[in-house]
Amino acid sequence: MTGKNDTLLQVEEMKTVFKTRKGNLEAVDGISFSISKGETVAIVGESGSGKSVSALSILRLLDSNGEVTSGKILFNNLNLKDISNEEIRKIRGNEIAMIFQDPMTCLDPVYTIGDQITETIKIHETLSKNELQERALELLRLVGLPDPESRINAYPHQLSGGQRQRVMIAIALACRPSLIIADEPTTALDVTVQAQILQLLKDLQTQFGTAIILVTHDLGVVAEMADKVVVVYAGQVVEQSNVKDLFNKPQHPYTEALMKSIPKIDTSKERKLLTIKGNVPSLIEIPAGCRFHPRCPFAIDKCISEEPPLFELANGRESKCWIADPNLTGNWEGPIFTEENEPVFELNQHLISKKNLMEVTDLKKYFPMTKGILSRTIGHVKAVDGVTLNIHKGEVLGLVGESGCGKSTVGRLITGLIDSTNGEVSFDGKQLSNINRKEKKVLRKRVQFVFQDPYSSLNPRMTILDIIGEPLEVHNLAKGSLKRQRVGELLEIVGLSKNDMHKFPHQFSGGQRQRIGIARALATEPELLICDEAVSALDVSVQAQILNLLKDLQLKLGLSYLFISHDLTVVKYISDRIAVMYLGEIVEVTDSQTLFTEPLHPYSKALISAVPIPNPNIQPDRIILSGEVPSPSNPPSGCKFHTRCPFAMDLCKKEKPELMEITEGHTVACHFYKEVSHI
Ligand code: SF4
Ligand code: SF4
Q1: What is the ipTM of this complex?
Q2: Same domain for 153 and 17
Q3: Which residue's CA lies nearest to atom 6 of ligand 2?
């Protein structure tokens, strides 16, 4: 435990203001927290909460229109707010370093990574050329970059995402800072690489006693990494606590709602996710009183008119909520939401028929790689390499895997958005290759797509009536007043109002736009929806709304889904069966429960073990995979997973394992699944 004298950084009543054409925006409004030596403090919140701006304010790394206008940022008895630019530059990188979400935006593409590390050291220390080179190598070894002797001369674009993040950490460590500020350091990484980077940060912290401010939206990462948590909402701290107490008994409605809105590995399929109505308010329209009151189910009159202070609670905790006021509620202990607040879904088993709605056999998609002005083909990216799958009527099939595994390409091939190189797709017993254009058009009506990004998938110049009405017209389903009536119905089905149909996409929030995307997909009354990362771009509270909606629609309309996602807990919550993909191939298929309790493929095991668990009392027993997914243009021989598999034997390098049915409905592609299943 660290004592008060160990305090390294003390932020007091910090305010950060951005000057804009719409006036001054208070992105951070009086935030206070402290961090001690060797401690990890997580700043948690949804997008627009002010968590990243708070972190950037500490080092005065704000855009030119932003400024810390009041408060104190005390670091080693210096107020970083008031020191000169020269002084803060000396502290940056030397005593406080920063790691960003996307290393590509911070690494200079024209310099080798070795040069970028040595440049950082040179700013703060005088060393000879050889000493600099040796120090850079030492740092690259420390952060586990494979083959550092040759990689030191590589340019950022020659490294993978995980390797670039390791380089960023090496640069951050270059001058042995006492504090690292890590802003969403693993958000852009795949889950197995995230596990490597989190482990690396923990190891480095143990080795050097570095304090870490971790800015994140991921409660699983918080539970695993943090000692203390600061929850921010609309620019203010709403709760502050040690990590265990926070997860055991959150003391603010927003914190508890956040925790209950994310599906966990053990969340029952029947449980409706808790949703927070509405969205994080825009800084232009900050609500009066408690800023959370328009979304809070417990708001009383006082919440609308009077802003609550941060009440001090037992164990050094704080909550900015009138419920925590001892004069109002006595010795209130929470939790705030009760089981009765959480309605349930019926299960969808009665909807699932034995009949296949969609069948995919040996599907392949090879993208040619070309070179020169004659565009000579020099190889192929084997994005999908022999996928065989089926989706039953009324079933939700989850498709998981890390980026580049080919899962989205499978979705596009099934809907006919792109043509396959080889293989067959059948829908309702009809082979797509044997049907004419007219029949293909009918088929398009029956299979629809929900895209990931609700911002770019809707044409900004079209009204919602035109966007949702377009497929109705294309398929001759409705025109004129009938179209308007149908669009109104569809908007209401997805939880919007029919009065919204004359608005444009920019007038809606991210979650509302995703509802519009779903309404458009439903316009043709499809039987199968391909949902490609349909909730990945949304904040967790909004994600819960959309997941509940998708489950609701599936039950009401008897739809089938192919639910493609990198998020295993989301997939487990919504899917009946799950297929796991690696480098263009299916490696395991089984029902969603069995996949999580008895996975047979080493990759499935590693994927599941890498998921951060939002419970600080559980220390996950993790299988840390080495390296990253190899390039699909030059996949490994034999079993494509052998370069990363902790159980690989000689046979794995030579012979490709076929997908075999082990028990009814459970297929796996691994030579040694029996041996692995006991580990
Ligand atoms: S102060 Fe009122 S509105 Fe704000 S979180 Fe507490 S109960 Fe809800
Ligand atoms: S076949 Fe070999 S390399 Fe592939 S997953 Fe099984 S044990 Fe690992």
Answers
A1: 0.92
A2: yes
A3: 670
